[in-house]
Design brief:
Helix content: 25-40%
CATH architecture of the largest domain: 2-Layer Sandwich
Number of helices: 10
Number of strands: 21
CATH class of the largest domain: Alpha Beta
Number of domains: 2
Structural class: alpha+beta
Oligomer: single chain
Distance between the termini: 66 Å
Shape: elongated
Strand content: 25-35%
CATH topology of the largest domain: Chloramphenicol Acetyltransferase
């Protein structure tokens, strides 16, 4: 029986998706719930699992095509055999007869229907193309490059001259120079384009200003050192710095609710909860999963949820609902070595806290110069609704909570 493989229902905020990667080609056997194809949306990559065991009979869309909810991506034949048929026994006559070599033809599974169509329309032998896709597969860009090379003339080897004749002109000799600087034009992914759009939107629609402070993390480091092993043994996660910052930020947001607010037209929306987004860097771009009701979470809850989100982000398993909403964001450039930066607001939020690298610096404490582990922190805020006073007091609240973490435990 043939089973239709359909695009899953996309959320209201997502109108369409792009076919990113087919993990199976027509003729290949798949198991139930095995990932068939990745669909890239503006926010996350969705996996489309096989609805049953069977053989992928056809693909209706190629990689790079845009699809919408409910469209048929392909057909799965759940009656097809999983194993290839046994080869026929050779007869004596067949063994003695001279073999006739069939014309070379690339296996059907080596490239998508769109690539096959381009090859056929332009009469290109796939054996002449070096595939750059996963596992050496020929992708659409490889064929387009081959067509371009054929139209512009013979590709020269380094140091070898070639001659081409432009329409209506004299022959032009081109020499490919050894060590020439290559360039590669790659289209933005859906996620990268969406990130660019949101950053541009943030720059255009908010009045951003950044205030700074610095935090002495001596006490936090001492607590982590003293309780790190016991914490991990009991809760199964490592005690990091981010959980302290999340707890400090949640308490500061309670005391300064304007930092947790957002603008809607001519109205200010005050949120009675702290849904804090944690910026996570992935190979495909920055994503911001949300810690719901972060103020009610323990340090262990926060560390466990962050670890889970980071793993899902690396493996492409984040869900759209994990990224939606959020009243405030924390980003940590310090993990990459950033000492000082001005983060950009994640709309429709009105503020974002930037963490940075911890560096030992000479500080004056009780009249003496001592070395202390210091971190610069930055708060970028929408100056339309947040005054400088509110921003500075918020940062001071963060500083006080981190320099004396016992305040968090005593709710001071």
């Amino acid at each position: 029986m043939s089973i239709e493989i359909k695009v899953p229902v996309l959320p209201e905020s997502v109108s369409d998706a792009t076919v990113a990667t087919w993990h199976k080609q027509p003729g290949e056997f798949v198991q139930r719930d095995e990932n068939l194809v990745d669909l890239e949306t503006d926010k996350v990559v969705l996996e489309v699992p096989a609805p049953a065991d069977g053989v992928l009979a056809s693909q209706a869309f190629a990689e790079g095509d845009v699809v919408t909810s409910g469209q048929v991506l392909g057909i799965l034949d759940d009656q097809a055999q999983a194993s290839a048929p046994e080869p026929a026994q050779e007869t004596a006559a067949e063994t003695d007869a001279p073999a006739t070599a069939p014309a070379e033809q690339a296996p059907v599974g080596d490239y998508s229907p769109a690539v096959r169509k381009l090859l056929e329309e332009n009469d290109i032998d796939p054996a002449t193309i070096q595939g750059t896709g996963r596992g050496g597969r020929i992708i659409k860009e490889d064929v387009l490059n081959a067509i371009k090379e054929r139209e512009t003339g013979t590709t020269a080897q380094p140091g070898q001259a070639t001659t081409s004749t432009p329409a209506g002109g004299m022959p032009v000799e081109t020499v490919a120079i050894t060590g020439a600087r290559p360039e590669d034009r790659v289209p933005m992914t859906r996620l990268r384009k969406r990130i660019a759009e949101r950053l541009q939107e943030s720059q255009s629609n908010t009045v951003m200003l950044t205030s700074f402070n610095e935090v002495d993390l001596s006490t936090v480091i001492a607590i982590r050192k003293q309780y790190r092993e016991a914490f991990e043994k009991k809760h199964g996660v490592k005690l990091g710095f981010m959980s302290f910052f999340v707890k400090a930020a949640a308490e500061a947001l309670r005391k300064h609710p304007i930092i947790n607010a957002s603008v809607d037209g001519d109205d200010i929306i005050y949120h009675g909860y702290q849904d804090i987004g944690i910026a996570v860097a992935t190979d495909k771009g920055l994503v911001v999963p949300i810690l719901r009701n972060a103020g009610e979470m323990t340090l262990a809850d926060i560390e466990g949820q962050i670890a889970s989100y980071a793993k899902q982000a690396r493996e492409g398993g984040l869900k759209l609902e994990d990224l939606q909403g959020g009243t405030f964001t924390i980003t940590n450039g310090g993990v990459f070595g950033s000492l000082f930066s001005t983060p950009i607001i994640n709309p429709p939020q009105s503020a974002i806290l930037g963490m940075h690298a911890i560096k030992e610096r000479a500080m004056v404490v009780d009249g003496e110069v001592v070395a202390r582990p210091m971190m610069y922190i930055a708060l970028t805020y929408d100056h339309r609704i947040i005054d400088g006073k509110d921003a500075v007091l918020f940062l001071v609240e963060i500083k006080n909570a981190l320099e004396d973490p016992h305040r968090l435990l005593l709710n001071l």
